[in-house]
């Protein structure tokens, strides 16, 4: 019999990931506060419904939610539903938080779930909506070696590069710092390309040259050609979610009294941009915000 998976958070990332599980033959039970997302999963062959209606049926629950605050709330909802049923076999459930959450919250959640004999790991992802759709995400997991082994087949249905980074919380730590780098590259690239344009180097030419040179990054190789130069700004990753990741990274540097201003500076720009740009703006629209301050 195929394994059954609960999937909570069917947004830009979660929906294509849940669809991939269905394609690979898993039984999927989905929940999202947005009914449209649930209907979409259902029309693709998934089961949908409230957590308490399917929590007894699943071996794994995957979370793909916007923030730690929401993850914390949903975990309590799972616990309410789970402890309600006395028939559930102890140690039979594993919860995997694939959202980009705070590592400290992840460690706290692990302690709570351990007390309920529920196995918990963090396994956030990188690669964006495109890789979520084609099942080639990079997955960075935190937990024990045994937990990683147990989750590997399932995670392999969603991603191509699976990494066990370290103990619980390490995946979320890795992800926050990865996204700080990605945000920094993006911001610096937007400033650089706009500066070059002011010196009359055409942006397309500038990106072409940089991509054959040492200044290149994921921003110049992928984001500029696909979402920025064509002014479509439709990567599927919101500015607000990246702002959250940079804030998390800023906090992680501060907790270690790191002697750097860079996280603070990058956060400041993303934070200001999120106040100026329309609600729901794509993270690549930071380019628009850069044009408001860079060259007066
Ligand atoms: P999203 O906003 O598109 O999706 C989040 C989903 O969670 C929405 O459908 C929302 O309705 C649902 N939700 C909110 N509160 C809920 C609740 N209490 N119970 C059930 N469902 C609830 O976000 P996304 O872009 O899919 O990102 C999800 C996570 O993945 C975030 O942590 C983000 O930082 C991370 N991430 C996103 C990308 C990307 O490219 N979009 C890439 C890597 C990681």
Automatic annotation (TrEMBL):
The active site is at 175. Pfam families: NAD_binding_11 (PF14833), NAD_binding_2 (PF03446). Residues 4-166 form the 6-phosphogluconate dehydrogenase NADP-binding domain. It comes from Cytobacillus depressus. SUPFAM superfamilies: 6-phosphogluconate dehydrogenase C-terminal domain-like, NAD(P)-binding Rossmann-fold domains. One of its GO terms (molecular function) is NAD binding. One of its GO terms (biological process) is organic acid catabolic process. Keywords: NAD, Oxidoreductase. Residues 169-288 form the 3-hydroxyisobutyrate dehydrogenase-like NAD-binding domain. Belongs to the HIBADH-related family. This is NAD(P)-dependent oxidoreductase. It comes from the Bacteria. The keyword Oxidoreductase applies. InterPro entries: 3-OH-isobutyrate_DH-rel_CS, 6-PGluconate_DH-like_C_sf, 6PGD_dom2, 6PGDH_NADP-bd, HIBADH-like_NADP-bd, HIBADH-related, NAD(P)-bd_dom_sf.
């Amino acid at each position: 019999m195929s394994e059954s998976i609960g999937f909570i958070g069917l947004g830009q990332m979660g929906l294509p990931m849940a669809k991939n599980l269905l394609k690979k033959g898993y039984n999927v039970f989905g929940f999202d506060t947005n009914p449209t997302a649930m209907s979409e999963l259902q029309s693709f062959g998934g089961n949908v419904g409230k957590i308490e209606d399917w929590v007894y049926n699943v071996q794994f629950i995957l979370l793909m939610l916007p923030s730690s605050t929401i993850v914390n709330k949903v975990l309590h909802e799972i616990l309410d539903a789970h402890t309600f049923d006395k028939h559930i076999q102890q140690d039979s459930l594993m919860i995997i938080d694939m959202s980009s959450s705070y590592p400290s919250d992840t460690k706290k959640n692990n302690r709570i779930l351990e007390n309920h004999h529920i196995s918990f790991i963090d396994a956030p992802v990188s690669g964006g909506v495109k890789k979520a759709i084609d099942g080639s995400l990079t997955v960075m997991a935190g937990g024990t070696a045994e937990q990683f082994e147990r989750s590997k087949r399932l995670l392999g249905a969603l991603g191509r590069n699976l990494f066990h980074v370290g103990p619980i919380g390490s995946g979320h730590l890795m992800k926050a710092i990865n996204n700080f780098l990605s945000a920094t590259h993006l911001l610096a690239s937007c400033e650089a390309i706009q500066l070059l344009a002011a010196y009359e180097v055409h942006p397309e030419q500038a990106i072409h040259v940089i991509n054959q040179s040492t200044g290149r990054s994921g921003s110049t190789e992928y984001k500029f050609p696909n979402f920025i130069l064509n002014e479509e700004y439709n990567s599927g990753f919101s500015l607000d979610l990246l702002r959250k990741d940079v804030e998390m990274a800023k906090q992680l540097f501060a907790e270690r009294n790191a002697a750097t201003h860079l996280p603070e500076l990058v956060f400041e720009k993303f934070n200001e941009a999120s106040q100026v740009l329309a609600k729901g703006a794509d993270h690549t629209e930071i380019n628009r915000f850069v044009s408001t301050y860079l060259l007066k």
